[in-house]
Design a protein that fits this description.
Order of helices and strands: HHHEHEHEEHHEHEEHEE
CATH architecture: 3-Layer(aba) Sandwich
Shape: globular
CATH class: Alpha Beta
CATH topology: Rossmann fold
Strand order of the largest sheet: 3-2-1-4-5-9-8
CATH superfamily: Vaccinia Virus protein VP39
Radius of gyration: 17 Å
């Protein structure tokens, strides 16, 4: 499913660069733990020799945490402002590079290398408004033989903390007002048309199975659920 123009404008203009940075300056310790544990899970899987690609990388928040653990890390994001902000944010890591690119347009031809690891984290598979089965096929095409993709979404057990965090963003003026009557069952709805959904554990299993590759689904910290798919040699 093609990302709508309104959704593109939201991430490229409304919530980018310094405003996106402010999203992660939360007052909630449990949400900060979620950020840290999601990154730690990926970091613990790296040997230090991988070429890593992150889809929907924002200003490079996750890239900065992983840069010391891999040979090369590239992030793509639709927002020119994010990429410009990220150049300073990542300046101490010459092997970390952000590129302006629409994540819907990924293909092996658009990159100079294949990757041992492709990341689609923090519910990005939902946020990018893609058809998940066909999009994961695109992700797998970017991987070198033996490479893995890590796709994460929110655990249902994290719902109350996730909602607190989004309400905090709305209070800061980073999001529009949350529609509390419509917000339920893992779906956060804004009165301005914003809508954030997730993939369930069952859906992630279906996506992994459909690839035909070995996969596993794992919950981390009762806050993230990861789908990890390995491209067989």
């Amino acid at each position: 499913m093609k990302q709508s123009l309104a959704q593109e404008n939201y991430y490229a203009k409304t919530l980018s660069a310094k405003r996106l940075y402010e999203v992660y300056q939360t007052k909630y310790p449990r949400v900060k733990t979620y950020f840290a544990e999601e990154i730690a899970f990926v970091k613990n899987q790296l040997r230090g020799t991988e070429r890593v690609l992150e889809l929907g990388a924002g200003y490079g928040r996750i890239m900065k945490e992983l840069a010391s653990c891999c040979e090369l890390i590239i992030g793509i994001d639709i927002s020119e402002d994010n990429v410009a902000f990220g150049e300073d944010y990542l300046c101490v890591f010459p092997h970390a590079k952000l590129i302006v690119m629409d994540a819907h347009q990924i293909s092996p031809e658009r990159f100079e290398t294949s990757f041992e690891v492709v990341l689609c984290l923090q519910n990005a598979l939902s946020a990018m408004k893609v058809e998940p089965f066909s999009y994961v096929e695109k992700i797998m095409a970017l991987l070198a033989p033996g490479g893995r993709t890590f796709i994460s979404t929110y655990s249902a057990k994290f719902w109350s903390h996730r909602l607190d965090w989004f309400l905090e963003q709305a209070e800061k003026g980073l999001l529009g007002e949350i529609d509390l009557e419509q917000t339920k069952d893992g779906v956060i709805v804004g009165k301005d048309g914003f809508r954030a959904v997730t993939h369930s554990l069952e859906q992630l299993n279906e996506i992994g199975k459909a690839t035909g590759y070995p996969y596993e689904v794992q919950e981390v910290d009762e806050s993230s659920i990861f789908l990890i798919i390995t491209k067989e040699v």
